[in-house]
Amino acid sequence: MAGTLTPERTARRLCELSTDARAAVLLDAAGSPAGFHGVPKSRSADLARLARELIEAVDRAHRDLPGGPPEQVEAQVDGGMVYASRTPHWTLAVVARRAALSSLMLMDLRAVLGELEGGPPIRRSTAAAAEGAPLPATEEAAAGETPVPELGLDGEDSP
Amino acid sequence: MKEKRKGPIRRAAGIAEGMAATVRRMQREREPRVLVYDETGYARLVQPDGRGYERLLETAERMVELVGEADAEAKPRRARRASASRDEP
Questions:
Q1: Taking CB atoms and an 8 Å limit, are A62 and B36 in contact across chains?
Q2: A114: exposed, middle or buried (C-beta count within 10 Å: 0-12, 13-18, 19+)?
Q3: Given B39, B59, B69, which is nearest A54 (Cβ)?
Q4: Bridge partners of B36?
Q5: How far apart are CA A25 and CA A129, in angstroms?
């Protein structure tokens, strides 16, 4: 089906969604790399191995923590942030800039994994100019678009 | 209630306290930390003396370094490509 997200395109999709994402790697349930973006092919195996180690370390750390098994992890270190999110089938890890907003990045990770697993595609808003807005941006045009009915207008038609 | 007027020394001390608090906050924000989230989005901080903390940080640092090295390698290549395209007639 056209537009369906494939494992090969998933890491790229995440980096396109978030400007703070520098590189990403997708692992399958067995921990094998299924796609990457942001690093040359020669380094993709290293990134995948480190992402696998990160998830293993999360599972080790979880034994001392209350609550359910971790689904997402966020690590802040000198020079950047690392996030990872997993489902029973996939793990997506991303290296991001320090300026990245954690809540947004974690939401993007969940959204991309959801799309990969057949969920609704992520809709990206586009600027009105890009869609070829026919109306000029005037106050009159804006007034015509208001969804709130103006008071007193209903009474004009009545006798 | 009438607010007590502050003298110049008190005002300066207030500004200094504010700046010190900002510096402390910035230092806290720069400190390495690891958070894990369960399926409900509930966040838990992995304590520095907790199991796996060092390994988590070390792995994350290596990931950031790897991407930094890859970026550094790619930059000269990009610059060469850009200059080559500029030289083309």
A1: yes
A2: middle
A3: B59
A4: A73, B44
A5: 34
Residues A43 and B70: beta-carbon distance below 8 Å: yes
Range A89-116 average pLDDT: 94
Give the range among A106-115, B26-35, B76-85 with minimum mean pLDDT: B76-85
The pLDDT of residue A5 is above 70: yes
pLDDT greater than 50 at residue A156? no
| Residues A100/B64, Cβ–Cβ less than 8 Å | no
Distance CA A86, CA A74 (A): 12
Strand partners, A93: A25, A84
Mean pLDDT in chain A? 82
State whether B36 and A76 contact (CB < 8 Å).
no
Of A37, A26, A15, the closest CA to residue A108 belongs to A15
Distances (CA, A) of A111 to A27, A55, A66, A80, A115: 16, 19, 26, 22, 6
ipTM of the complex: 0.74
- Shortest CB distance from B70 goes to which of A39, A57, A73? A39
Contacts of B31 in chain A (CB under 8 A): 76
